[in-house]
């Protein structure tokens, strides 16, 4: 991450579209250098609009890290209060409760990611314990939302695929057999689509209901109350590193960890499979998920050090979120297809649905490559 007092004339290669941003931070990679990405990849660095808003002398744990953590802790507590208000029986299942849950997860992720990146500037034992608990809470709250979105995504895709104008690239194609084979495939898909949709709805609705019950149980548990108490204390007091570590320079306390987070991200992106590889190779998904988690950590470090999110990363964030959703939807379709004793037409519809979601995953990967501001990273063999 470029230091706040440095200037640059480089610009990103593409304009990015706004996006949205649900997971434990990945294990910290080895290596301690604070080199800039250009030293590793030769990629052009996008300008930071807020780089001039802070000077290196103003960047300390007391003026940057502690206020950020306190602000996120306050947002967590506000979201928790709203969640309690909108989780009454009269408001159960409402949009306000869902919005409060999303805000609660968002604050928990930011606190957890910040504790991970800047662990050396904080009390390490406290940081590790709170990060573990927030990771547990965020993952638990994310499941119900994920199952609901997955079901909506799959049902909408089934409706599109079973319509009269089934796209040739997404259907079961018999090369050389002409339009008659395509019409036969559409007919078979139409027969199985309704049953496939019903099967998916049963499976995912059951999973969502169980996740909702687990979340409600967790929110009433002693473990959650301990987490809420810890975050409440964080809103007023941030336990910084004791002893000599407390007096470290801004570069050692904040810039170096942020640079290491950026280096890990760029290394993960450079290691992504090149364009044009087999689209149905699920073994490649893990590398893309890892890049998504590292991008999240980099964004949070950017918010701490530079005071705001990096606009150039909105497009890649959105693309990787879509990639995650498509991959998980494809896995759900494949799991449903393994249900014993389902009709052949149902299995066929689920197979087409799985292929469609894998195409969506490939499209998200292409969108990431187009919006990634360090374009030369992706040209590596």
Q: What would you note in describing this structure?
A:
This protein has helices at about 35-40, 60-85, 95-115, 125-160, 180-220, 220-235, 250-270, 285-305, 315-335, 345-370. By secondary structure, the chain is mainly alpha-helical. α9 (about 315-335) packs antiparallel against α10 (about 345-370). Mean pLDDT is about 80; it is low at about 1-25, about 25-55 and about 165-180. The chain contains ten helices and no strands.
A few lines on this structure:
With 381 residues, this protein is mainly alpha-helical. 64% of the residues lie in helices and 0% in strands.
What is the global morphology? globular
Mind summarizing the main beta sheet?
A: none
Kindly state the percentage of residues in helix. 55-70%
Please identify the structural class as seen in this structure. mainly alpha
- Gyration radius, in Å: 23 Å
Number of helices: 10
Which band does the percent of strand residues land in?
Answer: under 5%
Compute the average pLDDT.
79
Succession of helices and strands:
HHHHHHHHHH
Report the strand count.
0
Contiguous runs where pLDDT drops below 50 for at least 5 residues: 2-24, 26-53, 164-178
């Amino acid at each position: 991450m470029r230091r706040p007092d440095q200037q640059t004339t480089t610009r990103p290669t593409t304009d990015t579209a706004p996006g949205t941003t649900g997971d434990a931070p990945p294990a910290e990679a080895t290596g301690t250098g604070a080199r800039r990405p250009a030293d590793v990849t030769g990629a052009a660095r996008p300008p930071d609009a807020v780089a001039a808003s802070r000077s290196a002398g103003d960047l300390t744990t007391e003026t940057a890290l502690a206020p950020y953590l306190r602000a996120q802790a306050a947002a967590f507590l506000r979201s928790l209060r709203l969640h309690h208000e909108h989780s009454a029986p009269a408001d159960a299942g409402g949009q306000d409760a869902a919005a409060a849950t999303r805000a609660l997860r968002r604050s928990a992720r930011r606190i957890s990611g910040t504790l991970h990146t800047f662990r050396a500037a904080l009390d390490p034992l406290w940081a590790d314990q709170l990060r573990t608990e927030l990771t547990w809470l965020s993952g638990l709250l994310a499941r119900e939302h994920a199952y609901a979105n997955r079901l909506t995504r799959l049902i909408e895709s089934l409706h599109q695929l079973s319509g009269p104008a089934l796209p040739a690239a997404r259907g079961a194609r018999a090369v050389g057999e002409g339009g008659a084979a395509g019409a036969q495939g559409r007919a078979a898909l139409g027969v199985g689509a309704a049953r496939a949709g019903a099967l998916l709805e049963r499976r995912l609705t059951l999973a969502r209901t169980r996740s909702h019950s687990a979340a409600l149980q967790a929110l009433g548990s002693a473990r959650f109350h301990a987490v809420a108490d810890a975050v409440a204390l964080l809103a007023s007091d941030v336990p910084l590193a004791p002893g000599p570590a407390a007096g470290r320079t801004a570069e050692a306390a904040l810039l170096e960890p942020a640079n290491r987070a950026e280096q890990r991200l760029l290394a993960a992106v450079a290691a992504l499979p090149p364009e044009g590889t087999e689209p149905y190779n699920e073994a490649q998904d893990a590398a893309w998920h890892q890049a998504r988690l590292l991008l999240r950590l980099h964004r949070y470090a950017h918010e701490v050090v530079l005071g705001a999110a990096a606009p150039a990363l909105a497009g890649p964030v959105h693309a990787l979120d879509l990639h995650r959703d498509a991959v998980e939807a494809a896995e759900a379709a494949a799991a449903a297809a393994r249900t014993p004793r389902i009709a052949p037409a149902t299995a066929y519809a689920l197979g087409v649905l799985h292929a469609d979601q894998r195409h969506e995953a490939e499209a998200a990967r292409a969108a990431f490559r187009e919006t990634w501001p360090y374009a030369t990273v992706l040209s590596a063999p």
